[in-house]
Amino acid sequence: MTDTTVVLVHGAFAESSSWTGVIAALESQGVAAIATPNPLRSVTTDAENVRRAVESIGGRVLLVGHSYGGAVITEAAVGSEVVTGLVYVAAFAPEHGETSLGLTGQFPGSTLGDTVRPYPLGDGTHDLIVDRALFPNQFAGDVPVTEAKIAAATQRPIRDFALGEPQPAEISAWKTLPSWFVFGTGDKNIPVEGLRFMAERAGSLKTVEIDGASHSVMVSNPQAVADVIVEALAHLS
């Protein structure tokens, strides 16, 4: 269908398998897609990790980020000669100097803070996880409970520094690249008003809101997310 490879970047409290349904939907339409690991240590180093993955492909790339992964792709795309567009899936799209934590608190509605559990790393920072018993309701309310419990057990912790690190690049990539947004109106992690604000600010070419979908919208609605990605690819071809 296209010579562009889709590179999917997971966010906090998730891992690459969260993209399984989206990858299957894309591949059924002839779209090449990979999910690259996101260490969740800092925006700067995580973006460097994604840049290396992008450069290894050897062709055009559409970057797709979920949640904190949105901040990562925003940074990773800066200055790239091969990244052609950005898709934000229930994701942060920060401006220079903004943080994921700050954007979450800028609008009312997030209940994530009450469910997060820290543990020290020994360097003054902490790793954070979502309480595994609370994860299904907080993170994946529209995902079958058995599947949500597995996601809770396999979640990757994020270093608190990453959520509080100011976006490094002076010019965010969404200012120079076309972007698309898709998210659920039942998101309990990032307030829906915040997601709408970021989409409008970025000049999103298309914003898709899925009624009642949770923060794990790519798990509960993989075809709808894949459809946005395919539309982005068609626009870029």
From TrEMBL:
This protein's UniProt keywords: Hydrolase
Organism: Leifsonia kafniensis
GO-annotated molecular function: hydrolase activity
Keyword Hydrolase found: yes
Gene3D superfamilies: alpha/beta hydrolase
InterPro entries: AB_hydrolase_1 (IPR000073), AB_hydrolase_fold (IPR029058), Sec-Metab_Biosynth_Hydrolase (IPR052897)
Residue ranges annotated for the AB hydrolase-1 domain, each copy included: 6-228
Top-rank lineage group of the source organism: Bacteria
Protein name, entry field: Alpha/beta hydrolase
